[in-house]
């Protein structure tokens, strides 16, 4: 049974909402950790603390909704999702953003849609059309070209952290999408966070800043955003989108995420938006639109 156009459209809209929320993660994480010249919250604290706070909110949500406990067969996927989205991505992103601006991080992680699509195609044995892959590769090529132009061809150590963040996220997203086929999207991220609490809560406490009063209020604001929105509410929309519209298809909406992050970095961090960014943004959005028209041979979520 193939995914209907109605479900696919809904999935894309849910996915876009999740992408908008996630796009703010870059400038907000930069606010939280601060640059190397003026460090704020420790990257390890941001990683564990945001997951611990979101985990506490998840406990309340699961209790209020009387959500059923995960089955034993689902624990493996929950563990993979936790390692990818709760630990890997925020840790490597926080480490990178100590060294590079949010705009730089946004363009490097623009390869995430292709990584997610590849991971999904392998995990779910999906067979997207050649045209679909051409659009996906073209979109990622535009992102990488933009990164190369902005970075004058240099590959920094922080870029390695960013690519590790991409790999972790792609795998974590696919595991979460797999879980979304057998439980509600909201419950997926909640159980991932709750079952991670025995690790994230102690690590957050041990890595907390020595003098919390010395941390800028804006850094705490950034930490609050990545905890409540990036780590929790954003996944409500994202996993619902992946489940309804198909992981390979909806993952391509992420192609616009780096450019949304660039736009958000202007008012939040005061970074300058160059005209070239607008050109590349329009080009990437065009590949997403064309890719949506390409057959992807997806199976419906159950």
TrEMBL record:
Full protein name: DMT family transporter
Family membership: Belongs to the EamA transporter family.
Domain (EamA) spans 10-140, 159-290
- Kindly name one Pfam family recorded for this protein: EamA
Q: A Gene Ontology CC term for this entry?
A: membrane
Which taxonomic lineage is given here? Bacteria, Pseudomonadati, Pseudomonadota, Betaproteobacteria, Burkholderiales
Does the keyword Chloroplast belong to this entry? no
Q: Which PANTHER family match?
A: EAMA DOMAIN-CONTAINING PROTEIN (PTHR32322:SF2), INNER MEMBRANE TRANSPORTER (PTHR32322)
Its membrane topology, per UniProt? Multi-pass membrane protein
The answer to keyword Membrane applying to this record is yes
């Amino acid at each position: 049974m193939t995914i209907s156009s109605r479900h696919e459209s809904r999935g894309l809209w849910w996915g876009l909402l999740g992408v908008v929320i996630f796009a703010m993660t870059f400038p907000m994480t930069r606010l939280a950790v601060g640059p190397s010249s003026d460090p704020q919250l420790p990257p390890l604290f941001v990683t564990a603390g945001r997951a611990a706070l979101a985990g506490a909110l998840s406990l309340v949500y699961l209790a209020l909704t009387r959500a059923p406990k995960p089955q034993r067969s689902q624990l493996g996927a929950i563990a993979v999702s936790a390692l990818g989205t709760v630990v890997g991505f925020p840790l490597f992103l926080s480490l990178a953003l100590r060294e590079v601006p949010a705009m730089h991080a946004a363009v490097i992680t623009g390869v995430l849609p292709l990584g997610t699509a590849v991971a999904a195609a392998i995990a779910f044995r999906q067979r997207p059309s050649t045209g679909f892959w051409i659009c996906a590769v073209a979109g990622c090529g535009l992102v990488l070209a933009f990164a190369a132009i902005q970075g004058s061809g240099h590959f920094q150590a922080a870029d390695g952290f960013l690519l590790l963040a991409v790999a972790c996220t792609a795998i974590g997203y696919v595991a979460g999408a797999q879980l979304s086929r057998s439980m509600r999207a909201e419950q997926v991220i909640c159980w991932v966070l709750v079952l991670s609490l025995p690790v994230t809560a102690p690590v957050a406490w041990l890595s907390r800043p020595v003098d919390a009063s010395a941390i800028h209020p804006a850094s705490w604001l950034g930490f609050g955003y990545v905890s409540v929105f990036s780590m929790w509410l954003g996944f409500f929309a994202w996993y619902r989108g992946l489940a309804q519209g198909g992981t390979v298809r909806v993952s391509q909406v992420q192609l616009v995420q780096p450019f949304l992050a660039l736009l958000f970095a202007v008012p939040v961090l005061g970074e300058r938006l160059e005209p070239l960014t607008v050109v590349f943004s329009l080009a990437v959005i065009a590949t997403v639109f064309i890719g949506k028209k390409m057959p992807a041979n997806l199976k419906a979520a159950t």
